[in-house]
Write a structure and sequence with these properties.
By secondary structure, the chain is of the alpha+beta class. The chain is built from 18 helices and 21 strands. Strand 2 and strand 3 form a beta hairpin. Helix 2 crosses helix 11, helix 11 packs antiparallel against helix 12 and helix 14 packs antiparallel against helix 15. The longest helix has 21 residues.
Length: about 575
């Protein structure tokens, strides 16, 4: 631990600091807990939801997104036991003027499911997919049929048991498959120098692995909502592959391939000035690790100089220095908020001590560096799932923005350098004014794009609204640089700062698209509010024809607007 961190902690090591630490940890535990479900009084349910399908149990439930910024109390909810019950619920909602919102693990930031301030008496019904829509079967040696309520950890565990896996995956294992596909969830992976894509795999998003999906859609012949299965070559499927909550998908068939053993090396000894250096600088640059291994992630704590770099590489046999891991989540110092960090976060939140951001950044870096050594997790190896999944619900919860910059592989280092230089300069400028808008991390990942041929399905179409959709106007773009900035909710000047970063990206790179699950469209006061970004920049980033095709498909498959909310109504105009 640095003297600076130790001294600051000694100053706060009194009963007040202990109380704020307990308060913070209790709040974190509450967010990590499963929402309380209250069985409905049958008489009340019958009065408020008349003629609701009798075979589907109703209950009252709170909604909390990942960081607790979007909440709703006492909403009506249900957990259909199969897809036909889902159809019954949706038809009831249509007939009674209600809207249906599918809920998985609520692990997201943006208001795609529920808007902040949704009242308990709003005609909004949560449909929980995780309790029952969790079936898993192999359709063939290279395809898995999965219910959309299954978690990524359960899916990857099932695949591993059959010798199958994914090239990359989001880090949290609690995400439901349906939620991940709705927002084109991704990991971090591009081909290393000389590496070829193997059968059943993609360097793009999870949406790019879908072979077919079953969704609840309007059928004009019967005048009702029905189940319909779309295959990857159908135009409607292209919209539903990344539907942002404008549909409800109950089951998918995914292309999968042979599992691989991955080695994950972590290090905290490369300064940001070298890792994020200008192209051509030489040395240990981010792009050099991509060339070597293809899979890398940088986690750069605010106001520090040494990022936590993770580099994954395909390793069929265990390297001599690697520790074999047989389960995921191998960074306990990150999965559980350490006392050192909890003390600081508690003081920042309870006392408004935002000036402690540099101290918090140093503490988090110290914890990571020491934790990697203490837990022998700096060099781990095992089946892909065990190194790809590393975020639990108990980790420090922060708000996050997110963007994908589409570019050529040779330009990755330039994008990383220019963004980090702008971020560093603006952060220093704010700090000089006594403002500390970021107290979390910058996270950088790199992926390939959603090339439909990866699905190995004849005439497969690219997902219309995946941030990784290839651009017809720029065939030279073959790579996406994902850029996220995290900070504690409620941090003063955060929205103003994140707006500057967003405007920089849209101004500097034509290939900028938003990361659907996170924060974007910033005004100086709030996210998801800038009308120019919502109405012009986002549709333009896909092309007006593509955006219009997706919006038109959603309206045709759901003409009564059952699947949606006021924010999605604004987004799609």
């Amino acid at each position: 631990m640095t003297d600076h961190v130790a001294n600051n902690l000694r100053k706060g090591n009194d009963s007040s600091a202990a109380w704020t630490r307990r308060g913070f940890l209790l709040s974190a535990a509450a967010l990590a807990a499963v929402p309380v479900l209250l069985t409905a009084d049958p008489a009340v349910a019958a009065a408020e939801l008349p003629d609701f399908p009798s075979e589907v149990d109703l209950y009252r439930s709170a909604y909390r997104n990942w960081v607790g910024e979007i909440t709703a109390d006492g909403l009506w909810a249900c957990a259909p036991t199969d897809a036909q019950q889902v159809v019954s619920v949706v038809n009831w909602a249509w007939q009674h003027g209600w809207r249906v919102r599918a809920r998985g693990s609520s692990h997201g930031w943006s208001p795609l499911t529920i808007e902040s301030g949704t009242a308990s008496d709003a005609p909004v019904l949560l449909v929980d997919t995780a309790p029952h829509l969790t079936g898993l079967t192999l359709d063939s040696a290279s395809a898995v049929r999965a219910g959309t309520g299954v978690t990524l950890e359960a899916l990857l565990t099932y695949l591993e048991g059959h010798g199958l896996g994914l090239t990359a995956s989001p880090a949290p294992g609690d995400l439901t498959l349906g939620g991940a596909l709705a927002i084109d969830a991704h990991g971090t992976a591009v081909p290393a120098n000389g590496e070829e894509r193997t059968a059943g795999h993609t360097f793009g998003s999870l949406s790019n692995l879908v072979l077919s999906l079953t969704a609840v859609v309007w059928d004009s012949d019967t005048g009702a909502y029905v189940l319909r299965t779309c295959t990857r070559d159908e135009a409607d499927c292209a919209a539903l592959l990344t539907h942002l909550g404008r549909s409800l998908v109950t089951e998918v068939v995914l292309r999968v391939g042979a599992n691989a053993n991955l080695r994950c090396l972590s290090r905290t000894d490369i300064p940001a000035t070298e890792l994020f250096a200008a192209p051509g600088s030489g040395g240990r640059t981010f792009a050099s690790f991509l060339d070597e291994a293809g899979r890398a992630e940088a986690i750069w704590f605010a106001f520090t100089e040494f990022p936590w770099l993770k580099v994954w590489s395909v390793a069929p046999t265990r390297p001599l220095t690697s520790r074999r891991v047989s389960s995921p989540y191998n960074y306990p110092f990150s999965d559980n908020v350490p006392t050192l960090v909890a003390d600081l976060v508690g003081r920042i939140l309870s006392d408004g001590a935002w000036y402690l951001a540099p101290v918090l950044g140093s503490a988090q870096l110290d914890v990571a560096a020491l934790g990697l050594t203490a837990t022998l997790s700096a060099d781990i190896w095992g089946p892909s799932k065990n190194t790809l999944l590393y975020v639990r619900p108990t980790t420090l919860r922060e708000t996050a923005n997110g963007y994908a910059v589409l570019t050529g592989r040779a330009q990755v280092q330039r994008v990383v350098h220019e963004f980090t230089e702008f971020y560093r300069e603006r952060l220093a400028a704010y700090a000089a004014l006594g403002r500390f808008p970021v107290n979390g991390t910058v996270e950088i990942r790199v992926t390939g794009l959603d090339h439909p041929a990866d699905a190995e399905h004849t005439d497969a179409r690219a997902p219309l609204l995946s941030a990784l959709r290839p651009s017809a106007e720029h065939p030279e773009w073959d790579t996406a640089v994902w850029l996220d900035v995290l900070t504690l909710p409620g941090t003063p000047y955060a929205e103003e700062f994140l707006r500057e970063l967003e405007q920089f990206l849209f101004r500097s790179y034509d290939g900028t698209r938003v990361e659907w699950s996170k924060g974007w469209a910033y005004t100086e006061q709030s996210a998801w509010s800038d009308e120019e970004v919502l109405g012009t920049a986002i549709p333009g980033s896909f092309g007006e024809s593509v955006w219009g095709q997706a919006a038109g498909t959603f309206d045709r498959l759901d003409p009564h607007g059952v699947f949606g909310n006021a924010f999605l109504d604004r987004l799609f105009g």
